[in-house]
Amino acid sequence: MKRILAIIALALCVAAPALAAPLPDTLRSAGVTQAEWDAVQAEVARTAQRLAVSQRTLAAAAERLGLTLARAGRRVSAGEILAAIDGQAERIRDLEQRLSRLERDEAPEIAALVSRARAAIAEGDLDAADAVLEQAQAQRAERNARLSVQLEQGLLEEASIIASRGEVAMLRANYLAAAGLFAEAAAKAPEGAPERWRYRSENANALMRRGEIFGEPGPLRDAARVYREQVLPLVPQDRAAGDWADAQNNLGATLSALGALGEQAAARDAIAAFRAALEVYTRESSPTKWALVQSNLAGALMVLGALGDERAARDAVAALRAALEVRTRAASAADWAVAQNNLGIALGLLGAAGDRQARRDSIAAFRAALEVHAHAAPELRTSTQNGLAMALLSRAEAERDLSLVHEAIDLLRANLSLYTRGREMSWAQTQTTLGVALSMLGARGDGAAQRDAVAAFRAALEVYTLAETPYPWASTQFGLALTLSESARRGDRSHLQAALSAARSALSGFEQVGDAFNVDQARRLIANLEAL
After folding, report:
1. Is 28 exposed, middle or buried (0-12, 13-18, 19+ CB in 10 A)?
2. Which of 22, 172, 191, 300 has the most CB within a 10 Å radius?
3. What is the spatial distance between Cα 440 and Cα 461, in angstroms, rounded to a whole number?
4. pTM for this structure?
């Protein structure tokens, strides 16, 4: 069970979260409730007021993200929409500033079109805004052809209009279209213009967002290629150290996301990129960015730690403790709680490797995070409680303390009661962890707990699929196989074929993501079952 605990733990890293309005039918069909939608609208109102942006624009962007996910056949999580709200608001603010400059265009007809686009955006009509900006782009392109004397400035303005369309596409959650528009803007910007680097960076960021949200490795690989081949060459370290370090950090975040999808080589490259950024960002010169990169570095190290690399897990703990020297509770309780949560996960990886003190420290870190997250959004609270349950199970297994198992089960069942709908990834993750906990009781002769464990694993597999979520699917199949094998080992062969089927499924999933360690574990389990 240690491998299952370590694999599940990786998914628990927390990132910061995202007018009552009617719930769109498409979102309702995708499983979002009116209460969840009201929470999204309330957060939209608070964020719009805090960042001084149009509430209607922000509400439209939030709705468009949900609709895009739903139309792609994705299960829509209100927490995912909430987590995107701050970034969308900042993008709206940047877009507003860009359009404000474009309104001063020397061509009155273009300035008028930009004003119309601003008005449409302020009303939340993103489609109309894009259509008007497309007209402005066409008029600017036509005017540039006539005004060759002012070509360079005109090209910069045309690139800015194209980039504005990219920003609108991001707000519409059309990330691939946005990537194409930012690439077009970069190509339009004159050689040597700083805008070219910024637009290349936005191109990569749009690809990364697509890959991150949809769990697609292709766009993440494309984003990494753009950072390496098109962004970093434009900002050499010796001439633009800060921009170079920003690009290395963003490259690291992209590669880390790939690593979390099972590409170990990408995780190692992410670590190298974050460490390169730390050559520029020091605690003395840039404490905030230094702490951010240390936290990001820890995330990449934990990918390897979850696969059995104890040195990587120890380095992750060290990086998070370093970040906590800056991210104090007094400075920002929210950032401090996130760091404590992730520290709990990293320490849990060491605990699974046999470090008794790390197991105890992991529990303490999660309890510290809960001091803040107990009053935060449900997504944060349940994630931290899941992490605490994992830590309790790790210690229970090592110390044979069934009271810790029962405490973990109580936490997990409390989490399941907090979900307003039953078929989402967080719900499935909790079911898998509950299956692990119950199987620990089943291994000690509790037949009812063993049956409940099988039911929990199978419930999670109603959500996880090999095609969409190969890693958690394989991990859950492995847990199911281990649980079913207990009966077979005790002489009850009625579950042997089901155990073999689950073990073979786990093997196929681990092979698909290239997890050599767990491929070996699955093969060993299959051999043991075939020998019964």
Report:
1. middle
2. 300
3. 19
4. 0.77
Q: Is 202 helix (H, G, I), strand (E, B) or coil?
A: helix
Helices (H), 278-424: 287-305, 310-324, 333-352, 356-373, 378-399, 402-418
CA dist 461 and 199 (Å) reads 41
Instruction: Produce one character per residue of 390-419: b if its CB has 16 or more CB atoms within 10 Å, e if not.
Output: bbbbbbbbbeeeeebbebbbebbeebbeee
Q: Give the closest residue to 19 by CA, choosing from 38, 35, 1.
A: 38
- Which residue is associated with the tokens 């910069």? 156
pLDDT by residue, tens only, the chain of 532 residues:
555 555 555 545 543 333 457 888 888 888 888 988 999 999 999 999 999 999 999 999 999 999 998 888 877 888 889 999 999 999 999 999 999 999 998 889 999 999 999 999 999 999 999 999 999 999 988 888 877 656 788 889 999 999 999 999 999 999 999 999 999 999 999 888 899 999 999 999 999 999 988 888 899 999 999 999 999 999 999 999 999 999 999 999 999 999 988 788 999 999 999 999 999 999 999 999 999 999 999 999 999 998 889 999 999 999 999 999 999 999 999 999 999 999 999 999 999 888 999 999 999 999 999 999 888 777 788 889 999 999 999 999 888 899 999 999 999 999 888 775 545 778 888 999 999 999 999 888 888 999 999 999 999 999 899 988 888 899 999 999 999 998 777 777 888 999 999 999 999 999 987 788 889 999 999 999 888 8
* C-alpha–C-alpha distance, residues 94 and 100, integer Å: 10
| Three-class secondary structure of residue 423 per DSSP | coil
Q: Compute CA distances 40 → 10, 59, 373, 379, 516, whole Å.
A: 27, 9, 18, 13, 41
Contacts of 446 (CB under 8 A, 6+ apart): none
Q: Which two tokens stand for residue 239?
A: 């001439």
Q: Measured between alpha carbons, how far is 306 from 49 in angstroms, rounded to an integer?
A: 41
Q: What is the DSSP letter of 375?
A: T
Residue type for position 531? A
CA distance 160 to 137: 9
Contact 230, 200 (CB under 8 A): yes
Pick from 217, 226, 130: which is nearest to 183 by CA? 226
Cα torsion for 334, 340, 341, 344, to the nearest 10°? 180
Tokens linked to 159: 């690139």
- Token pair in block for residue 252: 């690291």
Q: Which residues contact 122 (CB under 8 A, 6 or more apart)?
A: 54, 56, 57
| Gap between the Cα atoms of 30 and 71, Å rounded | 9
- Total residues found in the chain within this entry: 532
Please tell me the distance from the alpha carbon of residue 61 to that of residue 126, in angstroms, as a whole number: 8
